[in-house]
Amino acid sequence: MAGTADVSRVEAPVTMKAYFMCAFAAFGGIFFGFDSGYINGVMGMEYFITLFTGLKKSDFPPPNEDKFALPSWQKSLITSILSAGTFFGSIAAGDLADIIGRRTTIIAGCGIFIVGVILQTASAGLNLLVAGRLIAGIGVGFVSAIIVLYMSEIAPRKVRGAIVSGYQFCITVGLLLASCVDYGTQSRQDSGSYRIPIALQMLWALILAGGLFLLPESPRYFVKKGKLEDAQTVLARLRGQDRDSDYIREELAEIVANHEYEMQAVPAGYWASWMHCFSGSLFNPASNIRRIILGTALQMFQQFTGINFIFYFGTTFFQDLGTIDNPFLIGLITTLVNVCSTPVSFWTIERFGRRHCLSGVLSACSRSMYDANEDLQIISVITPFLVGTDKANLGAKVFFIWGSLCVGCFLYAFFLIPETKGLTLEQVDKMMEETTPIKSSKWKPHTTFAAEMGHVATAAVDEKNAVLDAAADSAV
C-alpha cells in the first residue's frame, strides 16, 4: 500500500460531488429534529388533551384555563420515553455499525423508526403512544449515533466541520417543519390534529433510507473489515478521483496505517476492547478514558445549556402562562430563529476553530441565562416537574440553574476540548497524543501514520520495481 510522508497530501482536493454526498447524509438531521419537535405542539392540542385525559376545555373557564393540560407525569413520560429508546439504540448501533456497516445500520434504524411511527399514528391512548415512541427512539438511536460517524468518515477534512454543522442545521429545519405542521393542525377537532404530524415522520425516514441505498459505504469500515479493494473504490468515488490516483492511494494508506496502529494498541477480545475504551489516566489528554469523557460530556453539556426544554415543552408552558394568545406561533418563531442562526456556524468554526466558537457561545449563554431571570420569564422550563403548576413551579428561577451549568460548560470547553480545525481523523488522533487541549490550536501535523507504519518505504520499493519493469520491457 503506497503511502506518503507529506502531511499535506493525505487527502484529495474537495469536489462538489463530495459536498452533495455529505449534504445528503446530513438530511438525517431533519428526521431527528422533526421527531424531537412535533411532540411539543401535539401535547398542547385541545383534541389530544381531551382524548388522553378525558378533560374538556369548556369545563375550565378563566382564570382556570391553565388546568386544561396533560398532567406533568404524562408530559414527562411521553417526551422522555423517546430518549430511553435512543439510549439503548445508540449503544447497540456502535457494534452493529462495525459488523454490518455504517450505511446499513442507518437504513436499519430508519426501518425500526417507521415501525414506531406506525404505532404512534394508530394510538388513541397513552400505552400505544408510549410503546411507539420507545420503538421509534431505538431507531433514532441507530441513526443519530451513526450518521455523524458516517459523515465524518466520508467528508473531506477541509469541510468536515461545516458538514457536521450541516447536520445540526438539518435538525433545526426539522424542528421548524414540526412547528409549522403543528401550527397547521392544532385547531382540528379530530384525530388528524395529532396523527398528521406523527405520520409525516415516516416521509423523512423513507427519504433518508432510500438515498443511502445510492451512497457508498464508509471506506474506513471496509479497511476495518480487510476489504482494501472496496475501500479504494469507495474512496475514489467519494473524492471524485481515479481509483489509481496518487491521492487515493496515499489517503487509503493513511487510513490503513491508522487502523494497524489501533489494532496494535487495542487488546484482542470483545470485552477486552470495551474495557480498553476506559483505560488510561484522567490526567493524560491522550488516554482513552479522557476521550470517552470528552465525547460524552460534549453531548451532555449541550443539554445543560437549557435549550431543549423549549423544543419539548415550550408550547405547553406558554399555555400555562395564560398571557400568550397563540403559543403555537411563539414556538414556531423560536424554531425559526434557531434555523436562521445555525448557518453562521458553517463559516465561523472553520474560520475561528471549534474551541473559540464553543467557548464564546457558552460564555454568552451563561450571561443570557442570568439575564433571562429578569427579562425573559416566558422561557423558563426544563421539565414539567420543575415548572409545572402542579409540581415545583420554579418559574424563572430555573434560569439560575442553566446559567450556572453554562459557566461549567465554558470552563470545560476551555480547559479540556482540543482544536481539530483542518485535521484529518488520523491527525486528530496524533494531535491528542502529543499536545494538551489548551495548546492544541498551535499543533501542526509533522508526520503521517503511513510513514510511521512503514508504508512509505513500501511505496518506494514499488516505484523502483515499476522502473525496472519498464526498463526490461523497453529492452525486449
Detail the poorly predicted runs.
Answer: 359-382
CATH-derived architecture of the domain at 15-265: Up-down Bundle
What share of residues is helical? over 70%
Could you name the CATH topology of the domain at 15-265?
Growth Hormone, Chain: A
Per CATH, the superfamily of the domain at 15-265 is MFS general substrate transporter like domains
User: What is the class of the domain at 15-265 in the CATH system?
Assistant: Mainly Alpha
Q: What is the overall silhouette? A: elongated
Structural class category: mainly alpha
Transmembrane segments: 18-39, 77-97, 104-122, 128-150, 162-184, 196-215, 292-313, 328-349, 398-417
Main location: membrane
Family: Belongs to the major facilitator superfamily. Sugar transporter (TC 2.A.1.1) family.
Pfam families: Sugar_tr
Q: Can you put this structure into words, describing what you see?
A:
With 476 residues, the chain is mostly helical. The protein has a domain at 15-265: Growth Hormone, Chain: A (Up-down Bundle), CATH 1.20.1250. 71% of the residues lie in helices and 0% in strands. The chain is built from 23 helices and no strands. Helix 2 (28-42) packs antiparallel against helix 8, helix 2 (28-42) packs parallel to helix 15 and helix 17 (344-352) crosses helix 18 (354-375). The longest helix is centred in the N-terminal third of the chain and has 29 residues, at 72-100. The radius of gyration is 25 Å and the shape is elongated.
